[in-house]
Amino acid sequence: xxxxxxxxxxxxxxxxxxxxxxxxxxxxxxxxxxxxxxxxxxxxxxxxxxxxxxxxxxxxxxxxxxxxxxxxxxxxxxxxxxxxxxxxxxxxxxxxxxxxxxxxxxxxxxxxxxxxxxxxxxxxxxxxxxxxxxxxxxxxxxxxxxxxxxxxxxxxxxxxxxxxxxxxxxxxxxxxxxxxxxx
Length: 183
What we know:
By secondary structure, the protein is mostly beta strands. Helices cover 10% and strands 58% of the residues. It contains two helices and twelve strands, in the order H-E-E-E-H-E-E-E-E-E-E-E-E-E.
């Protein structure tokens, strides 16, 4: 009985600290790549990196690709680049599901061109990403994320003087759905 009591104490200690938890992030570096979209016409490439012995991920998302000009058969052209650079933390909800949240710096550029008219939008912002990831297995997972954004932008048009704006998109941002691969 005397030898079982310390063993029981150690087991309770380790199980309460999460050492036996299967969702506990490992102490080695992790890299993830993925593709996400909030619509069928634009996509973002995602890269996340967790340094060894850290409890957060560095994340970069960018490469805003718009397929609008292909769908409009060349009548209007739309090109843009949007990058999100930030830090992300994760909390385990269940064995296969995690909550993640973070803060990002978001510079952007977007240009629209049609017959005789051009509009260029340059922006800077701070994003607050929150989402859920569902692990299919050790390598693949699905994500759903909302990305509220506080953003300052200047819009320059060939038809009028520059327009400055400051906006906070809280409820107007669509849900980004994605798939990612961990290596």
